[in-house]
């Protein structure tokens, strides 16, 4: 596995692959890899000739009171996992390499960023679009891979790729879970023993909410079932429980659209998110 930190070196390797006609699969991450990331690498490995992974804790998507400084990092461990998973090139730039200048031009996410996580994290998805736009230009991937757990992020990136004709495909990867249902997340390490015991209830609550929605398509009842299950059994504080259309993320939900039931819960040192998508076939 090739390891590079500099954009110049990255582009040299990418040029070689493109000249030889190889397809490039790209898995962007912020590191502290878990099975969810590895599943995306495996998907990219199956569908492409060459696999690139990035590890970059992007400061542009963190607010002033968020956990940029304490976000978990372990590059040595990540490097080993990436190589074992079949990554061909690992790109792990420093901040001054990715953002050497600021000319004042910015990218703004649209209405999709005003709900769910975006409602309490203003500017977060602007920062996400900033970094993925740079990565898309640098890596020039055939296909990029994002996990369904970060469903709002995925929807916004899909919209940007569609609306601005990025020459690549976006692949969705299913949420990878612990045996008890907790969605894999780099932030799970911040949970106390008691919080870790409570955390799987989030997924249980979403499942109950989805089953309620299947019965009568009543959005408020589905949200109420989800909320009550969490409040009755968990120590964390609910940030939101929402049922919206997907990927548009609006309240205009009809029987012929996919919907998302999404939840975010604050614990003492971590904020966990989870969701379930339900298509018009009830799957």
TrEMBL record:
Binding-site list for beta-alanine: 61
Principal location class: cytoplasm
Catalytic activity, reaction form: (R)-pantoate + beta-alanine + ATP = (R)-pantothenate + AMP + diphosphate + H(+)
Alphabetized Pfam families for the sequence: Pantoate_ligase
Gene3D superfamilies according to UniProt: HUPs, Pantoate-beta-alanine ligase, C-terminal domain
Residues that, per the record, bind ATP: 30-37, 147-150, 176, 184-187
RNA-binding recorded as keyword: no
EC number, as in UniProt: 6.3.2.1
Signal peptide: none
Keyword terms, alphabetized: ATP-binding, Cytoplasm, Ligase, Nucleotide-binding, Pantothenate biosynthesis
Pathway given in the UniProt record: Cofactor biosynthesis; (R)-pantothenate biosynthesis; (R)-pantothenate from (R)-pantoate and beta-alanine: step 1/1
Biological role: Catalyzes the condensation of pantoate with beta-alanine in an ATP-dependent reaction via a pantoyl-adenylate intermediate.
Additional comment: The reaction proceeds by a bi uni uni bi ping pong mechanism.
Similarity annotation: Belongs to the pantothenate synthetase family.
Protein name: Pantothenate synthetase
Native source organism of the sequence: Paenisporosarcina antarctica
Upper taxonomic lineage: Bacteria, Bacillati, Bacillota, Bacilli, Bacillales
